Amino acid sequence: MLFFSQLFTRGLSVYIPKKPSELILIRHGESEGNVRLDALHEDARYQLFREVYKNYPLGEEFPLAIQHLARELINAYKIGKKPDHALELTQKGMEQSRQTGIGLKELVEPPHVIYVSPYARTLQTLKYIKKGWPELRSAKVKITDALREQQFGIVEQYLYHNLYFAFHPIHRAEFLADEYASYYYEFEGGESIARTRERVRVWFERAKEVYAEKRVFAILHNGTKLAVISELENLDFRQYMDTLRKGRFHNCGTTIYRTTSAWAIDDKMKCDREKEYNLRLWDIA
After folding, report:
1. Is 121 labelled a binding residue?
2. Which residues bind substrate (predicted)?
3. Are 84 and 165 spatial neighbours (Cβ–Cβ below 8 Å)?
């Protein structure tokens, strides 16, 4: 449901959708999990596993040698028993966040509210953004579960979805049934992309109502950031998945949306996709 304000002019009722004057979306800085997955993808053992995996017939059991390789990789890259929500920023991620605060200060005015995911890495991102932009310390902060990362359930025990599928080939067949089947697929104890988008949509509709014509920051994750953008740009599930497959936002990647006119009657906020879609406001080698 969209919320509307009413404007009367020359005897006519004109409905203007409520929306923030500016919406700034910031992905968290580099985290322990990001470093771990980067290292996994560069590992020669994983590259061998992936070559076998991507060409293996759907639904068939993987050879024991491939399962052993998958188990070896899981054991090598799991970060102790730390759950996803507790994974922290690296030193690089802290500095990315601080520099993002410095950069944002030059681009936008302080927000009326900062929404943030409750995960350690997003809360730390906010902490270090404030170090770069000390005036934000007085800003209103709302920690909301709606912006948490997509829940992957049992897959977290296996580190990565294709390592999980090495032991569960039937689920792999369901996940890859067609080009977009993964959009609706739910791992045991987890949630689908579709469900993640729905909770983000509910949050966004409420935020538009409460903070109409205000500046709003949101510090969140790759998936939930894309979910907000999908609402703003009316992406269907195919467009969402096509965008997701193009790659992740930078760590601390910043997207700035602005209303174009107080008299606009559509529900769009505009973004210069070339300049302001995935800004990297830090410069760290």
Report:
1. yes
2. 121
3. no
**Residue 53 CA: distances (Å) to CA of 67, 96, 117, 131:** 10, 35, 34, 44
Let me know if 142 is exposed, middle or buried by CB neighbors in 10 A (0-12, 13-18, 19+): middle
Cβ contacts of residue 79 below 8 Å, gap of 6+?
A: 32, 33, 36, 87
Q: What is the rounded CA–CA span in Å between residue 111 and residue 34?
A: 28
Give the residue ranges of DSSP H helices in the chain: 32-42, 44-55, 64-77, 91-107, 120-132, 161-165, 169-175, 193-210, 222-233, 237-244, 273-276
Q: Global pTM?
A: 0.88
Instruction: Tokens for 185, please give them.
Output: 């697929």
CATH architecture, range 18-276 = 3-Layer(aba) Sandwich (3.40)
3-state secondary structure of 60: coil
* DSSP secondary structure, 99-143, as one string: HHHHHHHHHSPPPSEEEE-SSHHHHHHHHHHHHHSGGGGGS-EEE
Model confidence pLDDT, tens digit, residues 78-119: 866 788 999 999 999 999 999 999 999 999 999 999 999 999
The pLDDT tens digits of the residues spanning 168-194 come to 999 999 999 999 999 999 999 999 999
Gap between the Cα atoms of 195 and 185, Å rounded: 10
Element (H, E) at 17: strand 12-17
Distance in angstroms (rounded) separating the CA atoms of residues 32 and 121: 9
Q: Tell me if 197 sits within 8 A of 191, measured CB to CB.
A: no
Q: Which residues contact 63 (CB under 8 A, 6 or more apart)?
A: none
